[in-house]
Design goal:
Chain lengths: ~325, ~260
Amino acid sequence: MPSSVMSTSKQGSGPQAPPAVSAIGLRKSYGDKTVLDGVDLHIPAGSVFALLGPNGAGKTTAVKILSTLISADGGQAQVAGHDITTSPDGVRAAIGVTGQFSAVDGLITGEENMLLMADLHHLSKREGRRTAAELLERFDLVDAAKKPASTYSGGMKRRLDIAMTLVGGPRIIFLDEPTTGLDPRSRHNMWQIIRELVTGGVTVFLTTQYLEEADQLADRIAVLNDGRIAAEGTAEQLKRMIPGGHVRLRFADPSAYRGAAAALPAATADDEALVLRIASDGSQRDLRSVLDRLDAADIEADELTVHTPDLDDVFFALTGGTDQPKETLR
Amino acid sequence: MSSLSLALRDSSTMLRRNLLHARRYPSLTLNLLLTPIIMLLLFVYVFGDVMSAGMGGAADRAAYIAYVVPGILMMTIGGTVVGTAVSVSNDMTEGIIARFRTMAIHRGSVLVGHVTGSVLQSVASVTLVGAVAVAIGFRATDATALEWLAAFGLMALVALALTWIAVGMGMVSPNAEAASNNALPLVILPLISSAFVPVDAMPGWFQPFARYQPFTPAIETLRGLLLGTEIGHNGWIAVAWCLALTVLGYFWSKSVFNRDPK
């Protein structure tokens, strides 16, 4: 085995832990199509990092390069302290990868898949059986353990996939769109699984096209667009980059709508839908002033929603999604 | 763990995986076995009288059984490795191969597992087809134990060579159908070798090709070992073919496997 475990502790150089993943200027193109155009990453150990981007932004390519599946055309990267080009086996020994397309052997059973991983991680027979049984139990796959993996549902396959990834006890886990194609319940299960991974101290590198997912799970988010990092920060930091909070009032009765529009001259009106939007930071004081004005005019809205700027706003603003159905102030 | 023992351990894990596939889904293997058995029965019971008449002298159906069985055995290997090409091509499209590539395992173990599994399957298939041949009257009682051993060794060597070629064919094929088509020469070549008809009985312009293509020397050597016919240069030509194809197939497959996957 490569003696990779100790190499991250170079010297006692203070509290700064070495990053789990660092990359400078990663580039990759296929033919004349540039997929990654100089990507820099710095992911502290023990954190959850989400790479967020629309389809075709280069998320999967970034994961493939960092997990040593394919080589970059330029730039350099260290994963778990190992250079991806000069020491790929050092990287491989430290990581676990769950790709976008299920990486299970469909022809054999779930249990056999787990034992295959145990063998490839050179666990003893007994240890392998114990680890396999534990993970099957943890991922709620005991009942299906003796069935061929090809018969599993999408959610079960994904759970098996992650269970297989965990067999070797990886310190860094790459999850490429872990919830794409899952139903809502399976998605929430997957989120729970990812949260548990993090409490175990591993670093999670996750890609997603769902903003909610990044918001729910990630400590830091980078928005990847056209092969470049368009913005990076915590969810809060990203949201602060974009104004767009508002209160939305909907009316069923046109006369109530007209009355409200008169009482709230600052609102933008949508006469078709009988909807008013008032810029707001969503604070209690702000809301009360809106409600007070409606009360003064003796008007009751049929629906009131507070819209705080979410990552969708950030996302569309940063990725210049002109073809996206925007719901913003006009 | 040293790199050699790592290689052995990972390769044997991959071999177990492939044997598990073969055991769980035997239909592909059994289908491939059917072709040589049908050919054997067809050429012995349907064409047998005509074929033996063509051999001249006092040859009868029993003599033709003796003539055709070594060719049928080599053909069995050719058929089995078509299955290898198909299963390698199928396997390479599976996500699990991408997983293997991102694990700290011996890189060649995936291919070595396929090759070893396929050679074992070839030997098993040859044994089964051989048993059918014995059941319909094939006898090689004059062969010594050493000659039997050499015969099995030769067949294992042919299986190894053709398997590595088939692995390469499977790797460059985008899907199972393409793999099956690409591997077709491995089924056609025995038909235009000395398997069913002596090369001397073929048209003169065709004889050089039939004589020097890899199957003919292998079949002639096997015939010599089992039935005591003249081997001549065929022994070393067969071995040279096998070694060359093994080396070619090995480096081809390895370089394709080491390319970045799509």
